[in-house]
Write a structure and sequence with these properties.
Blueprint: H1 2-7, H2 13-18, E1 40-44, E2 53-56, E3 61-65, E4 71-75, E5 81-86, E6 92-99, E7 102-108, E8 123-124, E9 126-131, E10 136-142, E11 152-159, E12 165-169, E13 174-178, E14 184-189, E15 202-208, E16 212-217, E17 222-227, E18 233-236, E19 249-252, E20 255-260, E21 264-269, E22 278-283, E23 290-296, E24 299-304, H3 307-316, E25 326-331
Parallel strand pairs: 8-11
Antiparallel strand pairs: 1-25, 2-3, 3-4, 4-5, 6-7, 7-9, 9-10, 11-12, 12-13, 13-14, 15-16, 16-17, 17-18, 19-20, 20-21, 21-22, 23-24, 24-25
Length: about 325
């Protein structure tokens, strides 16, 4: 019987508990419970319109956000979606990361959420932190309050090894810093990061172990390096292809994967600490209304969240047009 258990490719935690005395395999597989995600995962959730995605090693599932409902859910390797938590103050859940047993979620408002108000639309930038063990909110940080007379939209978040969070704002040329103690400040506020009038500016952000940030400016497709070790100096990363619509980014080893133009993922590599970068590969198969991506088991998975429909509804002031229920997660190939 022990040999039979060892040969099982995937066994649920409940089943392992039930076979209590039969798990002492000669060569236990540490990946026994690891999910097996295919090239493309389809999941269903009414009016989810997810924008952010990350992989939770605690839950062994992807976490996805919701622009229209301000909630977070999970997607497993069979494409089963389940709500994880909601929050009355979370208007539109945008970028998301998991760190240290907590979930960090950006709060914004384009005016298409069931929780949108005239006061919150285009005026919301927050970072909400939830305890993964309880799914309860631990902290809500109001970033818009740091610049009260501006339009705002908190878009994406990255974390360093000390638990310091960095958040982009798409309507002001700002990256916020939120310490592990919840204290918020403006890390940089520089016109070079400003969007053209009426367009999205800063979007995706990653932390590099070289102690710098890489941020994407959506409207122009430019990437910038913010050197945390050198007074937050900002320099443009040159040598890049056109990355118009640059959105979410994921750093895996020496390579950066950038979702762009809503229909592709570009793999970049740098040999000079991201002063310059060049293209390794462009994957254009299977991306429609793509937003951002996440790494799992050395692979990159990108969320097709129907973001074009969201933008059209926001421009038209018609959130009732957002009725879709089917979404996909595509593996980079």
């Amino acid at each position: 019987m022990n040999a039979f258990v060892c040969r099982l490719g995937r066994v649920s935690a409940l089943l392992l508990s039930a076979w209590f005395g039969l798990t002492a395999c000669n060569n236990p597989d540490p990946n026994l419970l690891a999910p097996d995600f295919g090239d493309r995962i389809t999941f269903m959730s009414a009016r989810q319109y997810p924008e952010g995605i990350t992989f939770s090693p605690v839950l062994n599932r992807f976490l996805v956000t919701s622009i229209t409902q301000g909630k977070v859910g999970t997607v497993d390797d069979d494409g089963e979606y389940m709500d994880l938590f909601s929050d009355v103050q979370l208007i539109s859940a945008i970028g998301i990361k998991e760190f240290g047993g907590k979930i960090y979620v950006c709060n914004g408002d384009q005016g298409v959420s069931s929780k949108s108000t005239a006061q919150s639309r285009l005026r919301t930038a927050g970072l909400f932190v939830y305890n993964l063990a309880t799914n309860q909110v631990e902290r809500r940080v109001d970033l818009a309050a740091l610049l009260p007379n501006s339009q705002h939209f908190a878009n994406d978040v990255a974390l360093d090894p000390q638990g310091v969070a960095y958040v982009t704002d798409s309507f002001v040329p700002v990256v916020y810093r939120v310490g592990a103690d919840g204290q918020a400040s403006v890390l940089v506020n520089d016109p070079v990061l400003a969007p053209p009038t009426g367009q999205f500016g800063l979007n995706g952000i990653v932390y590099h172990p070289g102690n710098f940030l890489i941020v994407a400016k959506a409207a122009t497709g430019q990437l910038y390096k913010i050197n945390l070790a050198s007074n937050n100096a900002i320099t443009e990363i040159t040598g890049l292809p056109t990355l118009t619509g640059a959105d979410g980014m994921t750093l895996v080893g020496t390579d950066l994967y950038v979702v762009n133009n809503r229909n592709r993922v570009t793999q970049l590599r740098s040999s000079d600490n991201w002063a310059t970068a060049s293209t390794v590969k462009v994957d254009e198969a299977g991306y429609e209304g793509a937003t951002t991506n996440a790494a799992y088991n050395g692979q990159i998975y990108t969320l097709n969240g129907r973001i074009g429909e969201v933008g059209a509804a926001a421009m038209a002031g018609n959130p009732a047009s957002l009725t879709a229920s089917s979404y996909t997660i595509q593996r980079f190939r």
